[in-house]
Amino acid sequence: MFPLLLLVVMVTCNAQHPQGRCDEVQTVRLFSPCTSCAIVQSTSCPRDSRLVTKATESTNCRYKVEIGGKVKMVPGCSHTCEKKVMKPRCCPDTWGPLCVPCPTWNGRMCNWHGTCVDGMTGNGTCVCEAGFSGFACQECKNKNTYGEHCDSQCKCVHGQCNNGPSGDGECYCQPPYTGPRCDQVSTSCKACSAYSYCKQSGGAEACECLPGFKKVGHTCTGDMCSRDVCDQNADCTNLDGGHYQCRCKVGYEGNGRVCVPLNPCASNHGDCPFNSTLCVYTAPGRSHCVCRHGFEGSTPEMGCTLKSACRQNTCHRTARCQTGMDGLPRCTCGAQEIGDGRRCYGNILDRLLELNRDGPQKGNLTGAIGCLLTLSKHGPFTAFIPVLRYPLNGVSESFLCKNHLVLQQNVLKDLQGKDFWTLGLEGLRFRNNEKFLFKKDPYTMYSVIQSDIAASNGIIHIISGPITNLQPPTSDSEQIAKQTVGEILVNDPKYKSFQLIWDNSGISFNLRGPGPFTVFVPTNSALDKFSHNTEYMQDQARHKLHTLLRHHVTTGSMASVEELAATDSFQSEANDRIYINIRQDGRLEFDEAGVHLEAGDIVAANGIIHVIDGVLVPPSILPIMPHRCDVTENRIMLGFCKSCDHVNETHCPANSIQLEGSPLGCAYLSIPDNVSTKGCTQLCNITKTRSDCCKGFYGNDCKPCVGGFQHPCYDKGQCVDGIHGNGSCICEPEYTGLACHICTDEKKYGENCDLDCRCVHGVCDHKRNSSGLCKPGSCQSGFSGDMCEMKITECSEYQTETCHYLADCVQNVTGQPACVCRAGYEGDGSPACLSISALDTRGEDAIET
């Protein structure tokens, strides 16, 4: 159940271990069960292990929970624990599960001329050094050598050499030969019996039995078993002709030269029942069955039964106790619950009912219990639940609910100092003091008064009060809901760019039809940035434009933001999939391009609209523009030169084609004279393709020049294009800047830089697309206004409040002082000025304080 990472600490070998065993003490790193980070501190390390650190670890930790009928793998946390265990290990020079000794010869492991494949997974084979052989490296590979290193040559002519690492090279002469090399004939040895040799000693010769034979009367009888040719756990039998047979004793197995104890447990678990018993080795060829830990039974050979490890208070009343196969109790939870190892936790709605029924928040959450479907079937969420004893009146429950929920779950420490997005697509910012505010209203602060309350589909934080300072849907939303998607796109300027592209594309898809549709509408600014693509498709690839538009529509359902968050992907009308990712800050993004959801759940009569900050491009239309224009080049060259008699044998180089026509004269060096000789050759045509970009594209990736490939540098300069180009603009004299978008004359503006700037006491904004006003913040001291034409005066004498710090006090056209917001801001100048750019992006950071 727990993943293990083993770290070796020490190795011990002492008399307490079985013979041949040098068990190893190891530190095992393991983890507590993965669960919600809100309850990980309540979890315990596995039995007999200790907590390494109090910090939680969430890397690659995910737990499984069922939310709304779907099984999800949710990021979580777990403890890191350590446990010391004894790992069975063989001592050096022993092998196998029983750690039996490696083969020896004369008490020397592998005769000291080899390496044993030892260890519990080894097979006890002696891997011999070069020149040695035998099961224990006790023989010389070359049978005609002898000596410790098998490097001495035997010199016997008519006899048997005492060879091998333990041999001395003595010659056992075949009768009637004698002498040190058995190359002399002796009359004394003519009558020697079989299996004898002629031995010379003190000038006399006599018949002696060969090694492994003994004399019985006048004959030599085989006695090879006297030479310890078999394993000590084998029986040796002498056979005729100097042969012998080794047979392992009962309880051992092997070839007789090597015999190892027979371990019945190694085969079919010693015939013990697998799930409930262990097989225990007792002696060679003998074993018995015992019950596993947590099991019991009088006849283990027939199987054991699991003993219940559950007691009355083993688990919390919310959990069910079960005894695991390891004999330990487990507190288990339902598929729609999570646990900390002792108790279980239900969904957010269940937890709110529980918190309101008992504990420090008893009765304080009555008014906050709502949004039944969302809080019980969707998620996971970070839920900000307000202290609210009575329900609020006159506020949409759905609107209120969405602004109290953030997709993804976060404990309080992970919220501090970060920005998040609610399910209602409102931006909020956490301070480092357990307080947060909404970007649309930075003056109202909310406090977390109880944090990190776990639920199966999220984490609950109790806050000081309900979030009511955000603007609910407009009063005309009911009127909008009566219109079709197509009508809404026409009537609302926020969708102007998308509606124009749709209408001008000639697509047959009708968004005023019965539906239902789910439509993703890119913002006007997103489509402006994408305009070079849509303009090309409109003129040159209308079919791609139709596919692009269909990729922003799904039919058959009206998928809300909550429903989008509950799925990983969906199929568009372009038959391509759109993939959804939920960032840790709660924001939805689509596809790998990271297109974000800006506004959602705009309900129409025949569908629902979601606004996104980018364009969803289906893979099937890539590349959108013909950015690659590879060049094919042909080059004529001569083939190989040969004698004209063999011109038909000549051939062209690889990747070339021989051209028709008469052979041409050439010269080649003749061999071996190395003299220049007249010859013949053929003409060859080599075709090569060179990578390059189309006009208006540059770089290795062939990216479009600034302004688009059809109007590079906005037609005010020349783009350094091509595969080796850098995309920079060489501007015409009247223009400058990276995109030739600035007038060279700092007092001019306009498309052709031929209009006079209107800035009076400041620095002119001399870009081609400007209005000829002053650059923000450039007014000279004492002047204000878009054209720095208004003189600043003191307002405090005439008004009860001074101007906002982003406003100036100026004389208006009637000569009266007034507060005017500075360039880039809108408002009455007192008490506040609002950022125009922030207003264009849903009011984020709109109010400057």
Automatic annotation (TrEMBL):
Compartments, as annotated in UniProt: Membrane
Membrane topology: Single-pass membrane protein
Domain (EGF-like): residue spans on this chain: 106-138, 146-183, 221-260, 701-741, 791-834
Coiled coil feature spans: none
GO cellular component: membrane
Signal peptide: 1-15
One Pfam family matching this protein: EGF_STAB1-2
GO MF entries: calcium ion binding
InterPro entries assigned to the protein according to its UniProt record, in alphabetical order: EGF (IPR000742), EGF-like_Ca-bd_dom (IPR001881), EGF_STAB1-2 (IPR056806), FAS1_dom_sf (IPR036378), FAS1_domain (IPR000782), NELL2-like_EGF (IPR024731)
S-S bridge residues: C128-C137, C154-C171, C173-C182, C731-C740
Main subcellular location: membrane
Domain FAS1, chain residue ranges per copy: 345-467, 482-616
Keywords: Disulfide bond, EGF-like domain, Glycoprotein, Membrane, Signal, Transmembrane, Transmembrane helix
Name of this chain's protein: Stabilin 2
